[in-house]
Fold this sequence. Notes:
Largest sheet of chain B: 6 strands, mixed
Low-confidence stretches of chain B: 99-103
Distance between the termini of chain A: 36 Å
Mean pLDDT of chain A: 93
Helix content of chain A: under 10%
Largest interface: A-B, 27 and 25 residues
Radius of gyration of chain B: 14 Å
Mean pLDDT of chain B: 91
Number of strands of chain B: 12
Radius of gyration of chain A: 13 Å
Number of helices of chain B: 0
Oligomer: heterodimer
Amino acid sequence: NAGVTQTPKFQVLKTGQSMTLQCAQDMNHEYMSWYRQDPGMGLRLIHYSVGAGITDQGEVPNGYNVSRSTTEDFPLRLLSAAPSQTSVYFCASSYAGLNSPLHFGNGTRLTVT
Amino acid sequence: AQTVTQSQPEMSVQEAETVTLSCTYDTSENNYYLFWYKQPPSRQMILVIRQEAYKQQNATENRFSVNFQKAAKSFSLKISDSQLGDTAMYFCAFMNSLANYGGSQGNLIFGKGTKLSVKP
């Protein structure tokens, strides 16, 4: 059972480039989300989804797009990377019930130069 | 808006001793969940312990226990018999149990973390 899989683990981009961070889960979780982690800031919610076809913004959504075409996948797109998006990105998923804990991926470290 | 505050950026403890990490939060809600997550140098986020606000009994998981003071909005983590493998960042997190996020009860609000070092 793979759990939550994020790819790539590391990525370096130049300012203005675009890329997609991939997230896949094999636990049939309805809920999926993206967080970014910056030094001294903890984790902050970027976007989340409560099911296929449903997405919404979190605390820091600017500069990021998401879509949820399947239950398993929740990619995060950076359309025009900026140095301020240098961060570690975590994908997480869970069942919709209140007693379901979040399962985190191992993170993607993104550097924008 | 809910906020989570961890006032200790760094702490250290001797192996086998006990350490307490502090967390306070601000919310106007009555029903919610509180969590402690551990992040070792591997970067993996590991759930340590969870507390439901409607439960008065403090949660425990082996060497980890919490002191939940609802009126004071305080949620501290006690680690007993500290081990070298406990060295990590520890994050306190809050989750609203109400459906005012459109059912997205999984949205967590994190504190900024406490870096714990266990010394041999």
